[in-house]
Amino acid sequence: MTDEAVQRGLEDVVALESKICFIDGKGGRLIYEGYDIRDLAERSSFEEVAYLLWYGRLPTAPQLEELSGRLRSMRALPDGVRRILEELPPTTPPMDALRTAVSALGSFESTAPVAAGPTGIGGAMRLTALLPTIVSEFHRRRNGRAPLPPRPELSHAANLLYLLTGTDSSPTDIRAMDVALILHADHELNASTFAARVTASTLSDLDSAVTSAIGTLKGPLHGGANERVMELLREIGSVDRAAAVITGKLARHERIMGFGHRVYKVEDPRATILRGWSRRIGEEKGNLLWFDLLRQVEQVVHQEKGLYPNVDLYSGSIYALLGIPDDLFTPLFAMSRVVGWTAHVLEEYADLRLIRPKAQYVGPENLTYRPLGERSG
Ligand code: ACO
Predict the structure, then answer these.
(1) Same domain membership, residue 130 and residue 59
(2) The CATH number of the domain where 250 resides is what?
(3) What is the CATH number of the domain that holds 143?
(4) Is the same domain home to 31 and 87?
(5) 349 Cβ partners below 8 Å, 6+ apart?
(6) Average pLDDT for residues 212-235, to the nearest whole number?
(7) Those residues with Cβ within 8 angstroms of residue 70's Cβ, 6 or more apart along the chain or in another chain
(8) Is residue 3 one of the residues assigned to a domain?
(9) Confidence band of 111 (pLDDT split at 50, 70, 90)
(10) Is the beta carbon of 223 within 6 A of some atom in ligand 1?
(11) Pocket lining: 249 vs ligand 1, CB cutoff 6 Å
(12) Co-location of 208 and 244 in the same domain
């Protein structure tokens, strides 16, 4: 037995070098490949950000057009995966359905390659293009409706909104979705990206790495938090009840979802941008209830615990007003984060080192083995 310091939750451990994403936790800045997230959210598109994260530079106009065309052409689901989704009970959590479908993809098409560079990026594009189709297929089937074919003439955000809601959305709604996708596309070594990189570091394939990541994103301390925020808002119901509900929960030592972060010590810059969009979409739809409730919750949580909002606080209020059911919020997160997961996996393949930390053994030692018949109690 050694006696080394244990870094619980790997907090503050620097596990690898990466060129993809930088989080300035004290300054409240998020940088993708050198570009500030605020500029990207203001001026770029999800497709452009995907190119940036996969290739490490912004595309030229023809490069963006080519990437966009390839994504549009890869949206159709293999029949075998469709049949698997049909077999799942309608009560299956959508994240489980997504994880199952992604893990099955390689059985019906060639498995995404274990390769960096253009071959690997092709596999990343295929997964990014397919995730909205998978979730939409499962969602419509569980509600007894026929699947909707993806629309190749639409951008990634517009097609995704169409598939999830079954209707054409307004340009403002589509832009809100595009911005949400940009903001969720990567976030350094968060738990799900780390899970993807651990899987890839064994030379396992891209689909397996993304399957690991989906299972990790699902947890309520990670991607599942925004769904819980909406549960909380529905429980609060009206602005005048917010303070009592929140202080009651804090007194019972319950966590308030959408607050706190391992890396940010100030407000998460994505929360700042999403707060603006929550208000804008609320105003457009003539429904500011969620926004007003969130402002109130924010005030109480900050006053009581000094905690700041994270990305999950405002996103659900936007998705709900866009017509997306609560249990599709985390799958929606995956539809964006798949770009970051795959970018990190490709970076891992390009400079591979098996990820294998150590544990401090604290169990018993030197026990005497007794045969089965001699044991009691
Ligand atoms: N509500 C109430 N108290 C909180 C919260 C919260 N949301 N977050 C942290 N705290 C408190 C803890 O109880 C702890 O208090 P204590 O020292 O008195 O025990 C203190 O703040 C530190 O908390 P830790 O759990 O040590 O902080 P950690 O870095 O491990 O946690 C985490 C980060 C998991 C995100 C945490 O803030 C949390 O549980 N938040 C709610 C879930 C959530 O919103 N997750 C989404 C994160 S963003 C993302 O993954 C996309």
Answers:
(1) yes
(2) 1.10.230.10
(3) 1.10.580.10
(4) yes
(5) 114, 115, 116, 120, 200
(6) 94
(7) 122, 125, 129
(8) no
(9) low
(10) yes
(11) no
(12) no
**Sequential DSSP letters for 76-114:** PPPHHHHHHHHHS-TTS-HHHHHHHHHHHHHHHSPPPPS
Check whether residue 39 and residue 152 sit in a common domain. Answer: yes
Task: Report, as residue numbers or ranges, the catalytic residues.
Answer: 222, 261, 312
Q: Both 262 and 292 in a single domain?
A: yes
Tens digits of residue pLDDT in 155-175: 999 999 999 999 999 999 999
Q: Which two tokens stand for residue 65?
A: 């057009």
Give the pLDDT band (50/70/90) at residue 130: very high
C-alpha 255 to ligand 1 mean position (Å): 7
Range of the domain at 245: 225-321
Q: Quick one: pLDDT at residue 135? A: 98
Same domain, 173 and 315: no
Q: What is the pLDDT of residues 81-98, one digit of tens each?
A: 999 999 999 999 999 999
182 located within any domain = yes
> d(Cα 50, Cα 104) in Å, to the nearest integer?
24
156, 157, 158: which is closest to 168 by C-alpha?
158
pLDDT at 377 exceeding the cut of 80 = no
Is 285 a pocket residue for ligand 1 (Cβ < 6 Å)? no
Dist. CA 260 → ligand 1 center (Å): 5
DSSP string, 213-249: HHHHHTSTTTTTHHHHHHHHHHHH-SGGGHHHHHHHH
101 closest CA partner among 147, 146, 136, 149: 136
Query: Are 345 and 206 in contact, with CB atoms under 8 Å apart?
Result: yes
193 lies in the same domain as 94: yes
Mean pLDDT of the chain, nearest integer:
95
Q: Whose CA is nearest to atom 32 of ligand 1?
A: 261
State pTM to two decimals.
Answer: 0.94
201 with 234, same domain?
no
Q: How far apart are CA 78 and CA 285, in angstroms?
A: 37
For ligand 1, mutation pick of 229, 310, 329, 336 (most atoms within 8 Å of CB): 310
pLDDT in tens, 244-256: 999 999 999 999 9
- With beta carbons less than 8 A apart as the criterion, state whether 211 and 312 touch: no
